[in-house]
Amino acid sequence: MKMNTSRVVILFLLIVPTVVWALDHDNLDPNRPIAIEDAYVVPKGEIGVEGGLLFSDRKRGESRLVFQPQLIIGAFNNTQLELSSDVSTDPRSVVGDDKSGNLTVGALYNFNTETLNLPAFAARVQLGFPTGVSAKGVDTAVTGVMTRSFGQWRTHLNVGYTFLGSPQGQERSGTYRVVAAVSYPLGYPTSFRDTIIANVFTRQSDLMGQRNPTGIGIGLRHQVSSRVVADIGIGSELFGPADRSVFFSTIGLSMGF
């Protein structure tokens, strides 16, 4: 498995294009700082390295920290490639996909820019390789992404489904998820350095017989410089299984280089 992982990383890096320098706080990526993304990809040739720390206070079970590194590459026109992982302080409590230490490779393709009559649409495909703790099988996730503007407000909808390659115990073989969000540039038009985001989400529980984790989140992305964006967010799974996150917070940094 280590050999396969190395091959994936090498193949990914071989298609890295020429680097340019810019990041946009108004371009939303998953988990930076909350679970929503927009339908737009980074420009061809742009590279971003993102990292965040998630704190999750669970109703049942120990609280845990999760480190979320991610590499984003504008590899082709309208297409960005991604390499990411999650590393948890309590890895054996993780069920479903995103096992602690798994390596995930993904691609986001933008079909169109927004027009007066048509929202912007994109699609994401991800493969999760079982390099993490207690992981088996290759997981596959597909997500549809839509973004629609109303003045300075932007609305976003993400609908996805994950197929587990080798479900264990009471794990479901597949789970859906739905996230809706709005974002707004604070201070516009006199200032354009901050974007506030709020979302509502629900996803099918990872284990059979449990309720959907359903909740809300709010976050802020701040443009520190042309190369650096900082983010912070909080939220709660208001309904769901006994081990749901009653409070979670994230803090992260995105850098272009």
How would you describe the overall organization of this protein?
- By secondary structure, the protein is mostly beta strands.
- 5% of the residues lie in helices and 51% in strands.
- The protein is built from 1 helix and 13 strands; from the N terminus they run αβββββββββββββ.
- The chain has one helix at residues 2-14; strands at 47-58, 64-76, 79-85, 87-88, 103-110, 120-129, 139-150, 153-163, 174-186, 194-203, 214-223, 228-239, 245-256.
- A 12-stranded antiparallel beta barrel has the order 1-2-3-5-6-7-8-9-10-11-12-13.
- β2 and β3 form a beta hairpin.
- The protein is globular and about 50 Å long.
- Residues 11-21 have low confidence and may be disordered.
The fraction of residues in strands falls at: over 45%
Largest β sheet strand count, sense and barrel closure: 12 strands, antiparallel, barrel
Decide which structural class fits the backbone: mainly beta
H-E string: HEEEEEEEEEEEEE
Mean pLDDT: 90
Counting H and I runs of at least 4 residues, what is the number of helices? Answer: 1
Shape descriptor reads globular
Number of strands: 13
Helix content: under 10%
**Biggest sheet strand line-up:** 1-2-3-5-6-7-8-9-10-11-12-13
**Rg value:** 18 Å
Straight-line distance between termini: 30 Å
- Low-pLDDT runs of 5+ residues are 11-21
Quick gist of this model?
By secondary structure, the protein is mainly β.
Which features would summarize this protein structure in a list?
twelve-stranded antiparallel β-barrel; mainly beta; 257 residues; 1 helix
